[in-house]
């Protein structure tokens, strides 16, 4: 019997099997590595040389983003100039990414460094300063919710004022501009403990400049990707106006910080935000904490930032709400029915009523879903390299939560493109808040004024509808519901008529 080679020798001598084995190993290794190694190139729309996707954004960036999201899925990238921006378009992915420590920074944008000259409020600061401010502001607002007068009664006072302003129009058409004054006064009352007469010249200038600043940042935002545009005369002029307005706003704030009056002692409850700041500054000084986070200048920056973050967002939401209700008489009638049943006519609606008014609560949320005033959220930046959904995202990448995409995704909403409170009601009319409802974003940088924003919208819309039925003046056509895009999605200019009920 001829003895054949041992099996092992045959194994290695047979060239074909050798090749097959090698190929198999390489294939297995590649599959294994590709599972483990983050993918580095995110999908995304093709861009232009130098400009990237800027021309593709068009006049309504959130609409273009929606088209790209439909094509590229829950995570994709766009390029604006040389800047890569990662767009997240899925509630779970936004939640997961924004609760992780390396995605809680804000990018250092040119517009910010040029105009804000590096000032650090809560929404623009990073690192230890941001953590301290965030903890302090969240805690101070919680204390003020139970102070006397509390935040709810400050909002209620402004709603009562707005109702009087509307009553004077006596059915004649009016632009709902007074809402901006009311929302500013709510914030001033919370922060300074004082409100202003709507015809006070400094107050009017403050509100006017704030609105103008938001409008101007729409075209100035291009500077963030193309800083050399700052040399264009139009841009230079706008930057100059923005800086002047900002200086005037700070002088206005400084006057009222100085005029604030008696300083509280330890153990007393703060009456307003300035009290809380002064107490914190005193606590730090006496405990020998050596930093300037609560110096008078920094307190002014902090207050300026809270005013800018809290006024326009809530005022736009309220104005969108008035417009949408004026255009949807059926929804308005149902809300009025619930107000009549739960609150009656003798007293003003209160925040606690919201729990027994599911249709009205659903309407308030639907306003924020249907016309999210920050459709692209506020950008974050990665402070270190991180993996998101299997992709490697380098440090310093801008990350944008596509809130409008999530809030209008047919996968999460029964009526994604309709203004319909039933998006928040089950078959039995019970209220439910889907996980995809995130107009205030999610995670470590989530809006700190979320409760206040919701309360303002509920109290103002119910306060107005308790007294009036609103409509757009006949013959004026339907206002452009696409809104005016910019840093925020502003409502269009329009007029309302309010008939006393
Ligand atoms: C309907 C009203 C409002 C909406 C829709 C809204 C929405 C948002 C959104 C989307 C963000 C970005 C969160 C992120 O970066 O992930 C934000 C941040 C912020 N909001 Fe609001 N907001 C509203 C009202 C307010 C109010 C009333 C205040 C003031 C009390 C406020 C203060 C802030 C601040 C300070 C930040 C920055 C937080 C941080 O960077 O840590 N917001 N808001």
TrEMBL record:
<keyword id="KW-0503">Monooxygenase</keyword>
<keyword id="KW-0479">Metal-binding</keyword>
<dbReference type="InterPro" id="IPR001128">
    <property type="entry name" value="Cyt_P450"/>
</dbReference>
<keyword id="KW-0408">Iron</keyword>
<keyword id="KW-0349">Heme</keyword>
<dbReference type="InterPro" id="IPR002401">
    <property type="entry name" value="Cyt_P450_E_grp-I"/>
</dbReference>
<dbReference type="InterPro" id="IPR017972">
    <property type="entry name" value="Cyt_P450_CS"/>
</dbReference>
<keyword id="KW-0560">Oxidoreductase</keyword>
<protein>
    <submittedName>
        <fullName>Cytochrome P450 2D6-like</fullName>
    </submittedName>
</protein>
<comment type="similarity">
    <text>Belongs to the cytochrome P450 family.</text>
</comment>
<dbReference type="InterPro" id="IPR050182">
    <property type="entry name" value="Cytochrome_P450_fam2"/>
</dbReference>
<dbReference type="Pfam" id="PF00067">
    <property type="entry name" value="p450"/>
</dbReference>
<dbReference type="InterPro" id="IPR036396">
    <property type="entry name" value="Cyt_P450_sf"/>
</dbReference>
């Amino acid at each position: 019997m001829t003895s054949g080679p041992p099996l092992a020798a045959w194994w290695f001598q047979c060239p074909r099997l050798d090749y097959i084995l090698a190929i198999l190993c390489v294939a297995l290794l590649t599959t294994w590595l590709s599972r483990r190694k983050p993918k580095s190139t995110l999908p995304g729309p093709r861009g232009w040389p130098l400009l990237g996707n800027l021309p593709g954004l068009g006049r309504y960036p959130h609409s273009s983003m929606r088209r790209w999201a439909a094509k590229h899925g829950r995570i994709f990238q766009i390029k604006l100039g040389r800047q890569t921006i990662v767009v997240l378009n899925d509630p779970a992915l936004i939640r997961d990414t924004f609760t992780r420590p390396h995605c809680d920074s804000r990018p250092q944008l040119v517009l910010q460094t040029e105009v804000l000259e590096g000032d650090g409020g809560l929404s623009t600061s990073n690192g230890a300063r941001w953590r301290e401010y965030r903890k302090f502001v969240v805690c101070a607002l919680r204390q003020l919710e139970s102070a006397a007068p509390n935040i709810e009664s400050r909002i209620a006072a402004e709603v009562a004022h707005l109702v009087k302003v509307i009553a004077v129009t006596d059915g004649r058409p009016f632009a709902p501009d007074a809402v901006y004054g009311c929302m500013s006064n709510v914030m001033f009352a919370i922060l300074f403990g004082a409100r202003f007469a709507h015809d006070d010249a400094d107050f009017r200038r403050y509100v006017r400049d704030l609105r103008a600043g938001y409008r101007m940042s729409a075209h100035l935002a291009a500077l963030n990707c193309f800083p050399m545009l700052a040399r264009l005369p139009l841009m230079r002029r706008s930057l100059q106006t923005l800086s002047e307005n900002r200086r005037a706003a700070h002088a206005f704030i400084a006057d009222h910080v100085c005029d604030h009056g008696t300083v509280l002692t330890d153990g007393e409850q703060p009456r307003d935000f300035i009290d809380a700041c002064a107490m914190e500054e005193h606590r730090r000084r006496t405990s020998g904490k050596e930093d300037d986070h609560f110096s008078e200048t920094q307190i002014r920056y902090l207050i300026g930032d809270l005013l800018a973050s809290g006024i326009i967002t809530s005022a736009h939401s309220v104005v969108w709400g008035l417009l949408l209700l004026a255009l949807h008489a059926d929804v308005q009638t149902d809300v009025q029915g619930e107000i009549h049943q739960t609150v009656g006519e003798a007293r003003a609606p209160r925040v606690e009523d919201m729990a027994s008014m599911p249709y009205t609560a659903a309407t308030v949320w639907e306003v924020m879903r249907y016309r999210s005033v920050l459709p692209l959220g506020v950008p974050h930046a990665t402070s270190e390299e991180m993996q998101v959904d299997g992709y490697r995202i380098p440090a310093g990448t801008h990350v944008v939560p596509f809130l409008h995409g999530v809030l209008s995704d047919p996968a999460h909403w029964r009526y994604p493109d309709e203004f319909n409170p039933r998006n928040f009601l089950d078959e039995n009319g019970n209220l439910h808040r889907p996980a995809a409802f995130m107009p205030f974003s999610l995670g470590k940088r989530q809006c700190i004024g979320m409760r206040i924003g919701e309360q303002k919208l509920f109290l103002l819309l119910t306060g107005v509808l308790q007294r009036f039925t609103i409509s757009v003046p006949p013959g004026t056509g339907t206002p452009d519901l696409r809104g005016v895009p910019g840093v925020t999605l502003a409502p269009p200019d329009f007029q309302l008529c309010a008939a006393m009920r």
